Amino acid sequence: MVQIKVENGKSLYKQTSLLVIGIFENEKENLELNQLDPEILSVIKENSEKEFEGTEGSNFVLHTMGKGPMKRIMLIGLGIKEGFTNEKARIIAGKAALHAKNLGLTEFCIIPFSKTDVDLIEAMSEGIYLSLYSFNRYKTIKKVDSDFSSVTILVNSDESKFQSVVDKSKIISESVNFGRDLSNLPPNDCSPAQLTSFALSLTNEDLIKSRILERYEMESIGLSAIISVGKGSNNPPKLIILEYNGTTDNEKPYLLVGKAVTFDTGGISLKPGDKMEEMKFDKCGGCNVLAIVRAIALLNLPVNVVGIVPSVENMPSGTSYRPGDVIKMYNGKTVEVVNTDAEGRLILADAMAYGIDTYKPKAVIDMATLTGACIIALGANVAAMMGTNSELINKLRKYGESTGEKMWELPLFDEFHEQIKSVVADIKNIGGRAGGAITAAAFLSNFIKDVPWVHLDIAGTAWTQDGTYDRSYNPKGATGFGIRTLIKFLENSNNEL
Ligand code: BES
Ligand code: MN
Ligand code: ZN
Description:
497 residues, alpha/beta, Leucine Aminopeptidase, subunit E, domain 1, Aminopeptidase, nine-stranded mixed sheet, 15 helices, 34% helix, binds ligand BES, binds manganese (II) ion, binds zinc ion
């Protein structure tokens, strides 16, 4: 990944193959522009009156023909000034980077789009790093994908302060791209065992400890739901546990739990064929958790975190679990399986109950591509949040606003528990079509004791799909949705909650 540099200095003296300047809609006087060579300026002025209005995302590239130290200038539209957000800066900076790449350039410079502060620089830096991600592992003819040799953000002051913001955002973006790389893997190259080896690659530097529970161990300690869901596949299930201690050992950890169904066929309750290939993304929650632990450790954050990733492949076969089966869960409750396609809540329930028992966390956050109903309720650009602690929920929503990862709470009212009552067992694993994202959360709430807990249903947002809003920084495929928000949360947690 390219390294973004922050440099103090006047843009008009900067030798570069491209200088990117953001222009607000209908803003005729732009300080940065006015300092340019009068000849260049007149060409720009002429053009901006005719065609370049500064509408959001539009752009215009001008060769300076030797009239300035910069070979080209790109004007990029920022839209109207009122209502400009860091999320827009993230998207537009990403767009500029992709344009520069399409022009075949190996280097460019960019000026902060609005008031230079830490959050703006962070957003622009993320936009650049994340938009340049591509998953080309399976392309035999590689596009000449020459990385930029350098990208420079030009500032007027505080070079080193902003450089450290950029350096941090690089670690975070690399972690997002690490998560995307895992999530994008096809199911034939990412069984639970393969995912486990990728997770273990994170433990090299000694910052992260790992524990892997094999099938027989899960069997002997009663993680029967993970065993049941996994038993239809020839690829055995795994429970991946990563621990990071950034503060004293007696400080309770945050527990992050991520669903990693490496492929979800639905099992005996087989899914229809249409779009089934997208179910390779049913491991995104788990991959995101691995990515978060990676980032937290590399950033050396002063928190304790345990990441638990139950990983299975949900397949139909002669050894599969069936509709009608009753499972005795890790916490002793019994579950009637009515639909083997509602597998995510089963493996999460066992993993959460086990994690709470073993690590006594101060809070639990789980992430899962859990329900199609979540997409029906909130679409493909908003994740659903449900839980038992409104402070935690509100914090996550707030951090999500700053990262551009939108989250919205659905009401986990008592009524929803009625829908998952079972005649033969304590509860059943589906609650009918009504409120399907909420009944899934209601199911999970049976396994968290009284620990503060938030569930994030990322079914609509974990990868680009029908209805996904086009963002430069989310190339097609896995998005890593939620990784940046949870890092922000853990970074600012101050160990309160
Ligand atoms: N992994 C799916 C949920 C899903 C479906 C996410 C489509 C993203 C896109 C989950 O395991 C599942 O199959 N859920 C069922 C639950 C139903 C059987 C109650 C669903 O949503 O249809
Ligand atoms: Mn399923
Ligand atoms: Zn699933």
